[in-house]
Design goal:
CATH class of the largest domain: Mainly Alpha
CATH superfamily of the largest domain: Intergrase catalytic core
Structural class: mainly alpha
CATH topology of the largest domain: hpI Integrase, Chain A
Shape: elongated
Radius of gyration: 22 Å
Order of helices and strands: HHHHHHEEEHHHHHHH
CATH architecture of the largest domain: Orthogonal Bundle
């Protein structure tokens, strides 16, 4: 993280790095990226200088007295219908970022799960993505049958020879999150983060009548219904239910985008 952000001071000796120079870089990071990113960079740089001081390699920590993170994490941020529509419509499907964001809206997946999606994890015939355990936060392999609108986005991605990743320009998948978001039609939605999409999908699915345990299965997050003892004995993956739920959610997103956010019919009758 630190390399690019603090490149201008790389050629300066350790004892010549000033508080003013660090403060200037943190200001630039806030301007180009976010307060959160600046706070994390400052924390890492400060920790590095503390270690260098302990090893006797420098005399002071130039981060002392600089501005730390001021934003408080908003872990309850849910995008409104109008905000979700604005984000969806701002997606440029000629870019990886636009495709990834729409897939996040349609699946509720974590950004790394879609940004680093591989062709070897996609079954075009079955319409599924199959995330191995090592690619999920909770270490559970995760399979989703996607609605047509999501598969159409995946099929639109050019398939390159000798490259397994769908997105990004290197062999590590898509990584330019903050840079691309900063260019993402500035001001379309205030104070939002990519993870707000996941929270908004979960909330939206529940609001249109999808049962909570199915929503948890969709986003591969098992707590109440399959937490504790229940999780030990209940090994159901709810694959038919998650397929139905994603189809229902895609219909709801379509109605939001068209400006006709109508009541979605009962899951059991519409997708039986």
């Amino acid at each position: 993280m630190l390399g690019g952000y603090f490149a201008p001071i790389h050629q300066v000796g350790l004892n010549e790095v000033t508080r003013q120079a660090v403060a200037a870089r943190l200001h630039e990071i806030r301007r180009r990226s976010s307060d959160t990113t600046a706070g994390r960079c400052r924390a890492q740089l400060s920790a590095a200088f503390v270690r260098l001081m302990q090893e006797g390699l420098c005399e002071m920590n130039p981060c002392i007295g600089t501005k730390g993170q001021t934003e408080r994490a908003q872990r309850d941020r849910v995008l409104s219908t109008d905000e979700l529509r604005a984000v969806w419509n701002a997606c440029d499907l000629n870019t990886d970022f636009g495709k990834v964001v729409r897939l996040l809206i349609l699946t509720g997946a974590r950004r790394e799960e879609i940004g680093a999606l591989r062709w070897s994890e996609v079954n075009l015939d079955a319409g599924t993505i199959n995330l191995p355990a090592e690619r999920t936060k909770n270490g559970r392999a995760h399979t989703l049958t996607l609605p047509k609108v999501a598969m159409d986005i995946i099929r639109s991605v050019p398939r390159m020879r000798d490259r397994d990743y769908l997105f990004g320009i290197r062999s590590i998948g898509f990584r330019s999150w903050q840079v691309q978001k900063a260019r993402f039609k500035d001001g379309i939605v205030k104070h939002w983060k990519l993870h707000d999409i996941r929270r908004s999908v979960v909330t939206g699915m529940c609001e249109i009548g999808i049962e909570p345990h199915v929503v948890e299965a969709v986003v591969n997050h098992f707590s109440g219904h399959k937490g504790g003892v229940a999780g030990i004995y209940n090994k159901a993956e709810y694959k038919p239910q998650t397929k139905q739920a994603l189809g229902m959610w895609a219909d709801h997103v379509r109605s939001i985008v068209s400006g006709d956010a109508r009541k979605v019919v009962n899951l059991s009758t519409r997708y039986a």
